[in-house]
Each structure stands twice: as C-alpha cells, then as structure tokens.
Amino acid sequence: MGKQEPDPKSLDDSNSTHKPDTSTVDVPVATNMAIASIPSSLLPQPSWFTAKRLLAVFCVINLINYVDRGTIASNGVNGNRRTCTKDGTCSSGSGIQGEFNLSNFQDGVISSAFMVGLLVASPIFASFAKRVNPFRLIGVGLTVWTIAIVGCGFSINFWFIATCRMLVGVGEASFISLAAPFIDDNAPVAQKTAWLGIFYMCIPTGVAFGYVYGGLVGNHLSWRWAFWIEALLMLPFAVLGLFMKPLQLKGFSHTGSKKPLTSPLTACPEEGSAYYHTNVYFTLSTWATENSKGAPSYFNELARFWKDLKMLHLEKTYVINVLGYIAYNFVIGAYSYWGPKAGYYIYHMKNADMMFGGITVISGIFGTLAGGFVLDRMTSTISNAFKLLSVATFLGAIFCFAAFCFKSLYAFIPLFAVGELLVFATQGPVNYVCLHSVNPGLRPLAMAMSTVSIHIFGDVPSSPLVGVVQDHINNWRVTALMLTSVLFIAAGIWFIGIFIHSVDRSNEDSENQISDAERARSQPLLKEKSNEPIEVPVESS
C-alpha cells in the first residue's frame, strides 16, 4: 500500500487505477455520519429559512390540523341525531349525525377514526426519516391530508366518512412525528420549552376555533363546506413541503440517496461563516455505486426499527412520561369531542360551541405559553418538567372536577377556565421530556410512539367509551365527573417521574453519527482555503 497524489480529474474516471482502499477510509459513510453530527443551525439552509419563519409555518399547519378536530366535534358540523316524540313526530336531525342517522357510539367512532391512520402511519414516517429527508415526508403527509379532507366533504354514508377520517390520520402522522424535532433543533437554547409551548398552543387554539368555525360554516353553508375550506387552507403548505428546498434534521444522514452529496464537509468554508453552501459535489462514482448496491433490505430495515423501538422503551423516563400523557389525553380527547354537547345538556347553553370554544382558546393560549415559559425560568431539566407536570395537572383536575359539581353556569365557567389553564400548561413540558430523554436519532420515533400511545390508549377509546357510559346512565354531569377523575391518575404518574434518575440525551451522538476515532481516521474532502490535491490512500499498481 502507498500514497500518491492523483490528478483530481482522474477520480471521476471509471477506468482509473487509483481506487480507494476502503479499509483505510470510507469517505461516503464518514461524510454522511459527520453530517448527522453537525447542529442543524450550522448546516447550509434554504434561502427561505429563518428559525422564526419555520416556527410560524409549523404553527399555522398545526392550527389547521386542530381546527379540523374542533370542526368535526362542533354542533354545527357534527349536529344532532334524529329524534321522535311519543306522538310519532320525528325531526330530521342536523349535521353529520342527523344526515347519516348515527348513534352516539358511531358518532364517537367518527371522531376517533382518523387515529387509526395516525397510529399506523406515525412509526412508518419516523422510520422513513432515516432514508428520506424529513421535510419532504411532511410535504407528502400534508398532501394526503388535503385529499382526505376533500373526501370528507363528499361523504355519502358512515363508512365513507370513517374511511376518509382514517386517511386524514395518515396525512397528519408525518407532521406530528417530525415537526417538534425541527423546532427543538432551531429554537434558542434558553427558550426551547417556550418555543414548544408556542407550537403546542395551537392545539387548544385550533380546537376552539374549530368549534366556532364549524358552528358558523355548518349553520350558514353546510357541514360539507367546512371540510372543503380546510383543504384550501392546507394546500399551500402541502406544496411548500413537496417543492421548496428542504431543511436538514439533526441526527440524520440520508445515505440511500444516489444524488451527490453537498454538505459542510464537501464545501469550501468562507470567511465569516461556519460552513458555506457551494456547488462542490462529491463525485467519486465508484464509491457511489458501492453505496447504492448496499441498500438495506426490507428485513434489515424492520430489524433496525425493532432495535430502535427496544432502545426507546428501555428509557424509564420516556416510558413514565408517556404513561402520564396517556391518562391526560384520555380526558382531553373526550373533553374536546363531548364538551359542547355536555355543556348544552348540563347547563342548557344555547351557544355551547361558542362558549366551550371561548373558554378553551383563552385557557389554552395562556396555559400552554405559561407552561413553556415557567419551565424555562425554572431551568429546563427533565426533573423540573416532571414537577411542573404533576403539580399543574393535579391542581387543574381539582378545578375541573369542582366546576362540574356546581349547578350554576356562572360558577362553572371561571372554575373550568382555571382548570383548563392549568391542564394545558403541560403541553410544552411533556413534549420537552419526549425529545430530551432520547438521543437525536430516536426523536422522530419517540414522538411517533408517544403519539401512537396517547391515542390508542387515550383519546381513541375515550370518546366511544364516554358515549357508551352516557347511553347507559343518561346523566352528563356524572359522566363528566367520572371522566375528569382520570386527571388525578395522570398527575400521580408524572409525580413518580420526579424520583427517577434522568439524563438529558439530546446532545448525545446517535448511531448515525461519526465517532471521534472514525473522524480522526478519515480525510476531509476539501481542506479549508486550500487548492492542494487531496491525498487519498490507493492501492499500488
């Protein structure tokens, strides 16, 4: 073995005798691994990108997602079932429930149907993020979401709309799994929880606006138009995700691509910037060919997925966090769907959509923002996050429970508003724990499995179960009190998390990243401010 200084042009010649000794340096693998280890803030970014602009775009998308959740639950869109009096006079009902003559159980199924698609697709999108740019995956998901929402407007029966709602979940899965890691990467270090709080503030805000929006559009146009307008609002963002130059996500390198790499390691640094994006490409075609031939098989991908899943569930901090989140979401999911109806029957609210929408939007905005800012002021650590989660949830449960005990609407409104404000303060901290209890390469899977768990064990069964309980006892007040008591369980689980030894793993190397030893053995493709030929180990002829 010897070292020579070949003509750089000869590196592209397939007949060249200067072939690399891959046992000494595997440049493509080292390059991709090194890309994964670089903070996203230092990677070359598209011209449209700024951190605040990214947050704003993701917030609007999240808002539209949850407007749809509120819309499907609003009295204007969901409506009421057909009823008949003792003398045989029947009303036609209104909205989806009235048009398709649905029972309360079927009505609850429609609210939860999108979860089926969400549960199946979330881990798939998280797995694909290791081979396909995550920003592109978000674009694909939003396109599916838009098409499915249009289908909801054209529904002809229960099964048609239930199927479309499942596809809505498939579309939402990519965004739910991948948006939070992008925000965590680009948020200022001292404001990470606050930025997550701003993002998750869109959940209660979107649901609340959905109540109001669904009531207005459903009563003045029709429930079908509510879905079509949502699709028009989401369409520009689907196009953005599909066709705009994508962002990179910390902890990932996409070795499956056959396109030449453009990265900080293949580009010439320029004065005044850490890395400069140029048109210098890695063009060693022999190595590219070897890489493409080594594409992982389906079974290797499946084995890797199960390995990652096992690593995820060995993290006690992550598991405790998700268990508390499941109990929490069991209540919040049922509140969001049955809240307006319960308010209508318990307190005879003539405008239940507007009332619940108003309480939820005000409490949701201030509560979610407050949770993020308070944790940042406490110093964002996993232990402090669990303290905030347990205390806020416990106090919120007390206020919400007390609210439903009062028969007066004027007592109910302030108590329930304070309760919701405290309960929504958990949104930033709970997702902070999800992102920081695992290493960067596992974040999309962590968010995906958190989403799967809180829905499959939380709000997916809660809406139909509350419908079944109400059908049997026919007392909305008792049903609401039984549901609210589950929040005490959530507070207890998060309280346990305070005493578990926790480590912030957000800055650990993922398995995709290059180790110090590997980095030392590898040669830089282009040296800084240098036009010297690259030294590449070659076999002696």
TrEMBL record:
**Keywords in alphabetical order:** Membrane, Transmembrane, Transmembrane helix, Transport
Q: How does the entry describe its membrane topology?
A: Multi-pass membrane protein
**Region Disordered: which residues?**
1-25, 510-541
- Where does this chain mainly localize? membrane
List all Basic and acidic residues biased stretches: 1-21, 516-532
Q: Which residues form the signal peptide?
A: none
Instruction: Enumerate the transmembrane spans.
Output: 109-128, 135-160, 195-213, 225-244, 318-338, 354-374, 386-404, 478-500
> What domain of life?
Eukaryota
For this protein, the record's InterPro entries field holds: MFS, MFS_dom, MFS_spinster-like, MFS_trans_sf
* One protein family per Pfam: MFS_1
Q: Where in the cell is it found?
A: Membrane
Family that this chain belongs to: Belongs to the major facilitator superfamily. Phosphate:H(+) symporter (TC 2.A.1.9) family.
User: PANTHER family, from UniProt?
Assistant: SPHINGOLIPID TRANSPORTER SPINSTER HOMOLOG 2-RELATED, SPINSTER
The name this protein goes by in its record: Major facilitator superfamily (MFS) profile domain-containing protein
Q: Which organism is it from?
A: Solanum commersonii (Commerson's wild potato)
What does UniProt list as this organism's lineage?
Eukaryota, Viridiplantae, Streptophyta, Embryophyta, Tracheophyta
